[in-house]
Amino acid sequence: MRPSLARRSAAWLLAALLCGAPPLAAAGTVPPAGGAVTSRAPQYAQPDPRSRVLVELPVGAALTVYRCFPRWCEVQAVRQGARGWVIRSSISVQGACVQLVPLGFKDVRRQEGGYRTELDLNRNGRACDPDDLHAEKLRSAAPALARGGRS
Predict the structure, then answer these.
(1) 93 vs 14, 51, 118, CA distance in Å?
(2) For residue 138, which of 18, 22, 24, 21 has the smallest C-alpha distance?
(3) Residue 151 pLDDT grade (very low, low, confident, very high; cuts 50, 70, 90)
(4) The pTM is what?
(5) C-beta of residue 75 within 8 angstroms of C-beta of residue 84
(6) Count of CB atoms situated within 10 Å of the CB of 105
(7) How many CA atoms lie within 13 A of 137 on its CB side?
(8) H or E segment to which residue 145 belongs
(9) What are 44-62's pLDDT values in tens digits?
(10) Are residues 144 and 20 in contact, defined by beta-carbon separation less than 8 angstroms?
């Protein structure tokens, strides 16, 4: 049985707070991340496949990623210059989970283009899930703890 939406949302919020990551915010309040297209993808004017296609993005096209939702990411193609929406599974975003989760790039499944094993610390097939975020924060705190809390 899958946990309720409220329970999953609470788990994400708790993980973000434990890791010191800011909660998901409106576009423009979280710094964008760099990314790239992993499979040829149309860039849409709206997060809807029936909306106007702005440009067809080739594999390897560099992107600036502003925010993501479970299915869509708002991006700007570096060379094409248009800001619009692409299917999340067709891109990869650079950075660690503590930087990607506030953008909404979380719980990335193994079959998605953005999945990277180094972000799936518990190897459960979902990168940047709450457990990975918590483990990443603990791993980054370990050197400071070994020094007795001094920087």
Answers:
(1) 23, 24, 13
(2) 18
(3) low
(4) 0.71
(5) yes
(6) 26
(7) 18
(8) helix 130-146
(9) 999 999 999 999 999 999 9
(10) no
